[in-house]
Amino acid sequence: MTASRMKCIHQMIERGMIQCITVPEKKMGKGRVTIRRRTPDLRLEETKQHRHLLKIFDTFSSVQNNTPAYYCGFDPTADSLHLGHMTLLSVLLSLAKNGFPVIALIGGVTAKLGDPEGKDENRVLISHQQLEKNSIALQEQITNIFQRYADKHNIDSSSFSVLNNKEWYSTMTLDQYTDSIASEFKLVDMFQRAVVKSRLEGKDRDMRFTEFVYQTFQSYDWLYLYKHYGCSIQVGGHDQLGNIEDGYDFVWRSLHQLPTLAGVTVPLVVTEDGQKLGKTATNVVWLDQSKASSMSLEQYLAGISRTDLISLSLKLTNHSIAELQNTSQSGILEMILEEIMPLLT
Ligand SMILES: N[C@@H](Cc1ccc(O)cc1)C(=O)O
Questions:
Q1: Is 105 a pocket residue for ligand 1 (Cβ < 6 Å)?
Q2: Strand pairing report for 32-36 and 69-74
Q3: Separation in Å, CA 247 to CA 75, 119, 234
Q4: For residue 222, which atom of ligand 1 is closest to its CA?
Q5: How far apart are the CA of 75 and the centre of ligand 1, in A?
Q6: Residue in 266, 303, 265, 267 with CA at minimum distance from that of residue 283
Q7: Contact at 8 Å (CB) between 316 and 86?
Q8: How far apart are the C-alpha atoms of 171 and 234, rounded to whole Å?
Q9: Helix H segments across 159-296?
Q10: Which residues form the signal peptide (predicted)?
């Protein structure tokens, strides 16, 4: 890994773009460990955990022979991504700018199952036609964002791929699913998951079987992308930590060796009262500007505190913390819009 690539990862940690990383325990020992970055976004001085986190990532990177590819999955539950996804895309874009191949995976099959992670209630089932429409819309939206960013920064657009997990599941037989995926999961572990416990014990107790087995599909995606695209690192919103850790264990078990894998989580964008942005219909900020929305990007940015605005611009722009601290709130708002709007329209 070249120094500039390593620097890019360090910067992402420093700017608060990365919340946790899951890496092999004790260099190449057995199992995994997740390191949580506890420093709040705006206190960027090096803390013990921060140094520890960098050291582990360095160790991990130095055992990689090739440049690892990164992937992040997006379930097409709507026909546009929202602002919460932009921080994930921003991580992928920074990585691509620094020479890492990146993959955006559209979950054409997983969206139908419904990821229980990060949600307290059952999802409305999406029809087949709606899913197809949403998948096409997201494919186009992400491809456009990648293309515009590549043009702006003179990046070879082959660094970016947009795939759909329908590609491998549409030809998979039930035998293959049973032998290579289902048999690797133990019920005792599946029932241990916090999300399963809370959904089974919660007031509705309405968890579907498809939601229960969702993790088996996300886990296999990583194995597939590892084998076919050299994808060692999965990026996801912080609510994906459970899926990422389980996927890590699954890839490890399936390959019968400890692969050089890492999971990276990105802090969620939240509203003033701490709610995950995009969780309900009324607090969503669509990236598709033409889509009817109760809140535009500008309105959202104008309504959050200065601290949240600085923290968000550290994730979405390249301006330094010192520069941001010396800029007025409306100036920071402009900086974010200047960075994002050209990618969207
Ligand atoms: N589960 C992710 C989406 C995803 C889908 C497939 C994957 O392989 C990875 C991630 C989410 O709900 O945000």
A1: yes
A2: unpaired
A3: 17, 19, 9
A4: 8
A5: 6
A6: 303
A7: yes
A8: 24
A9: 166-169, 174-176, 187-192, 194-201, 209-212, 214-229, 241-255
A10: none
Domain boundaries, the chain: 3-271
Q: Report whether 69 contacts 229 (CB < 8 A).
A: yes
Q: Do residues 44 and 14 lie in contact, with contact meaning Cβ atoms separated by under 8 Å? A: yes
- Among 14-18, 274-278, 324-328, whose mean pLDDT is lowest? 274-278
With CA atoms as reference, report the closest residue to 300 among 322, 265, 275: 275
Query: What's the CA-to-centroid distance between 138 and ligand 1, angstroms?
Result: 14
Non-local CB neighbours of 337 within 8 Å, separated by 6+ positions: 297, 298, 301
The pLDDT tens digits of the residues spanning 137-192 come to: 999 999 999 999 999 999 998 999 999 999 999 999 999 999 999 999 999 999 99
Cβ pair 198, 239 in contact under 8 A: no
Q: Is 221 in the pocket of ligand 1 (CB under 6 A)?
A: yes
Domain spanning 3-271 has what CATH number?
3.40.50.620
Residue 59 pLDDT exceeds 70: no
Cα–Cα dist 142/177, whole Å: 29
- What spacing in Å lies between the alpha carbon of 180 and ligand 1's midpoint? 20
Letter for the amino acid at 257? Q
Q: Is 246 in the pocket of ligand 1 (CB under 6 A)?
A: no
What is the rounded distance in angstroms from the CA atom of residue 150 to the CA atom of residue 105?
A: 18
Residues 28/40, Cβ–Cβ less than 8 Å? no
Task: Decide if 300 contacts 285 (C-beta within 8 A).
Answer: yes
Burial of 106 (0-12, 13-18, 19+ CB in 10 A): buried
> What ipTM did this prediction achieve?
0.99
